[in-house]
Design a protein that fits this description.
By secondary structure, the protein is of the alpha/beta class.
């Protein structure tokens, strides 16, 4: 007893010592973290038949990969089923829990099947080491499911168990899928199904024969994504959803060949024959009657462009107009494809109308997952065609709503692109539609954007078109069979719904400004504007750039440089040598004067240009407005600039070449104007000096005339020779006053009078 108390005291003392030490150091005592159970990855690679009937055995094959760090002893793979829930509606399928918050060992919704000698489980003798894989193959007899013979959908799958070292046997992995069961009662209707397969690729053409990379040709190869997708039209009724920009690039490759690379040393493209084969197969598919729906040119980010306002919102109309003019004989349907927030009424209304050629026959396509799950329940299964309310320009827009659940995959997460899971989900959803009523029922299936990078999941969908209750048709036939669609509200959306980043949209805006300036510069833009410029602008705004942001920005930058190169060919002539950039110097003599500036047009098109001169350091410079002028290719024009300045000195100004509407072309040119003329004070001084000079002269002349009138000169003497009177001495002129005499003045007068009388 004493020893036991001693041991307890020692333990308590040690605990107190540890606690005191922790308190002294200011850190809590360390507690061992719980160890998570190991988890393996389970994948179902094969499931058949797709929709078993009562009595059918089901074969499930797949792979187990040990993604943990533990070695698992005696691993097992066992079939499982949730037999307590027979799913009979689409809402019940959507409501199956993924059990993400439940530890793997505690997930019991899919009950393990353990009947010996039936093939429902598989035992492995060898351990499963970390990163190692094993295959499983389970054949489940119908009776082992122990379910009813009614039509419905069940959650089934495979459970993997193993024993980690030093632990008990655990459930370490699970994979589930949907199993539609076609009961003994026959299905009541056929499901008209239009499978729409998107055929588009991110832009790669930089202009002319230059392409950024080989990705388009690689995708069109038989084992590429576009190659696999196109092959699905062989022997099947499908609808192609195509970006015309992708067709344009493919046609360019076939017609002229192509080079690959963004730098100065491109390499010849190697996929010309592959692209040619793909285009011929596409034309053959159209000839067999498969409908083609063309997207707006470049498949632009509709929501991002409309949210950006002017001028980018105009690109939506331009893209739709470009598709309307696209050449694809014998014809096509003009279409629009919106998802998520981009399906809001403000986008649908604006993008479906307002462009030349807009028609009620255009196909407006929206995914059902654009609405919340609660509102999706209001979408009927009879027809996918609706009139959706929009804020304008029309009150409603005829729209086809694709059932997003048909491509959602299995109940477990991360199965949306697994071909087996996609196939089983499609079969389950359509089987319930076929068994839930009478009359016709139609659905439209569209793989979501960015889905199925390999094309294998879409191929699984196409394979399900052969199910007995499926009638493959086209969207055109479904729309024609719905003369009076119901009216519904458009889905709500956040304020901003752009897919492109702010940097990408800014690059598109710069390219748009440069392209618009070049178009405005041309005398005849309708005929002279190179088609590649507006096409490149629309490609730069493509939603297909999602996932390739750096490549998108490089594409816009390269195209911007190409347009700016053409704009730089229309400029003011600067006589600086050796490529040196310096100011243009001109002189302005007098209060008003002129000076010349020369514009050159080194492009291959006629342009209409003008010049605007603006002072930068003074406000007294006045420039008369210039009229724009048409300048032929490779020609120059030298207008005289009429200017005036109130003061002497150096005036700094900028000269800018402009278009007919006043848009600046290229960079401005700095001017140095030397103004040399009198100011107002100088003119006053000059006027005063002139007034003084002429005033003084006038006074002197006036005084002399007055004096001469008062004292006239005596008549010339007869004795004086005529020559002397005619030629007076210029150096000794006669005095103004008469000469004095010796006689008194009075006597002289008397003598004169006397002689006159005598």
């Amino acid at each position: 007893m004493f020893r036991r108390r001693l041991r307890l005291s020692a333990a308590a003392g040690a605990g107190l010592l540890i606690a005191a030490t922790a308190a002294t150091l200011g850190t809590p005592p360390t507690v061992a973290a719980p160890v998570d159970d190991p988890v393996v990855q389970v994948t179902i690679d094969s499931f058949g038949p797709v929709a078993p009937k009562p009595g059918d055995d089901v074969l499930i094959k797949g792979t187990v990969r040990n993604t943990s760090t533990e070695t698992l002893e005696a691993p097992q793979a066992l079939a499982c089923i949730d037999r307590t829930h027979r799913l009979s509606t689409a809402a019940e399928i959507a409501g199956v829990s993924a059990e993400q918050d439940v530890p793997m060992n505690d997930r019991n919704s899919c009950s393990r099947m353990t009947t010996p000698d039936t093939g429902v489980f598989q035992q492995y003798d060898a351990p499963l080491a970390p990163n190692a894989s094993m295959q499983f193959s389970l054949k489940v007899p119908w009776n082992e499911w122990r379910i009813s013979h009614q039509t419905g959908v069940y959650v089934v799958g495979v459970v993997v168990r193993g024993t980690p070292q030093g632990q008990e046997r655990l459930t370490v992995g699970r994979a589930r899928t949907l199993m539609p069961v076609i009961g003994e009662q026959p299905l009541t209707r056929t499901v008209n199904t239009a499978l729409i397969i998107p055929l588009q690729h991110r832009p790669t053409q930089l202009g002319g024969k230059r392409f950024t990379n080989e990705s388009l040709a690689e995708s069109m190869a038989p084992n590429g994504r576009l190659g696999r997708l196109l092959a699905l039209g062989n022997g099947r009724k499908v609808t192609w959803l195509v970006d015309p920009a992708t067709l344009d690039e493919a046609r360019k490759i076939v017609k002229d060949g192509y080079d690959v690379g963004e730098g100065g040393n491109p390499t010849p493209g190697a996929g010309r024959a592959v692209v040619d084969t793909w285009l011929k197969a596409f034309d053959a598919s159209r000839a067999r009657g498969n409908q083609v729906v063309l997207l707006p040119y470049g498949d632009p980010d509709i929501a991002g462009l409309l949210d950006s306002g002017e001028p980018l919102k105009e690109l939506v109309r331009d893209a739709r107009s470009a598709t309307e003019r696209f050449i694809l004989p014998p014809g096509f349907t003009n279409g629009l494809w919106l998802e998520g927030g981009a399906a809001a009424g403000r986008y649908l209304g604006a993008a479906s109308q307002g462009f030349p050629g807009a028609s009620d026959d255009d196909l407006n396509l929206v995914g059902s997952d654009s609405w919340p799950a609660v509102e999706q329940a209001g979408l009927t299964a009879t027809s996918p065609v609706y009139d959706i309310r929009t804020p304008g320009p029309r009150d409603t827009v005829r729209t086809v709503v694709a059932d997003s659940a048909l491509t959602a995959g299995g109940p477990d997460p991360d199965t949306g692109e697994n071909p087996i899971q996609v196939r089983q989900r499609f079969a389950a959803e359509t089987a319930l539609i076929a068994s839930s009523g009478k009359g016709s029922a139609s659905v439209v299936v569209v793989p979501p954007r960015g889905w199925d990078s390999t094309g294998r999941a879409t191929a699984a969908l196409a394979g399900d078109l052969s199910l007995k209750w499926i009638n493959a048709t086209s969207v055109e036939q479904i729309v024609a069979g719905t003369p009076r669609p119901p009216v519904i509200k458009a889905p709500a959306a956040p304020r901003s719904n752009a897919v492109m980043s702010a940097d990408q949209l800014d690059g598109v805006k710069q390219l748009d400004q440069a392209t618009t300036t070049f178009k405005d510069l041309l005398t005849n833009p309708a005929e002279d504007l190179p088609e590649a410029m507006p096409q490149a602008l629309l490609r730069s705004a493509s939603i297909s750039w999602r996932g390739f942001p750096d490549e998108a920005k490089r594409f816009a930058a390269v195209e911007l440089g190409s347009v700016n190169l053409q704009l730089s060919k229309v400029h003011l002539v600067n006589n600086a040598g050796n490529g040196e950039h310096r100011e243009i110097k001109v002189n302005l003599a007098g209060s008003k004067g002129t000076f010349p500036l020369t514009i050159t047009n080194d492009t291959d098109w006629s342009v209409r240009v003008g010049i605007v001169v603006s002072p930068t350091n003074r406000t007294d410079l006045r420039i008369e407005p210039q009229q724009t002028r048409i300048l032929a290719p490779k020609q120059k024009f030298t207008p005289r600039i009429n200017a005036s300045a109130e003061q002497n000195g150096l005036i700094r100004a900028s000269a800018q070449v402009i278009t007919a509407s006043g848009r600046p072309v290229g960079k401005s040119q700095e001017l140095l104007i030397q103004a040399s003329q009198y100011g107002s004070v100088g003119w006053i001084l000059v006027g005063a000096a002139c007034a003084l000079l002429f005033g003084t002269s006038f006074v002197r002349i006036y005084r002399r005339i007055r004096t001469e009138r008062r004292h006239p000169s005596p008549a010339p003497s007869s004795e004086v020779a005529v020559d002397e009177q005619a030629t007076p001495d210029a150096l000794h002129p006669e005095p103004l006053d008469p000469p004095a005499t010796d006689a008194p003045a009075g006597e002289s007068l008397r003598e004169g009078v006397g002689s006159k009388d005598g």
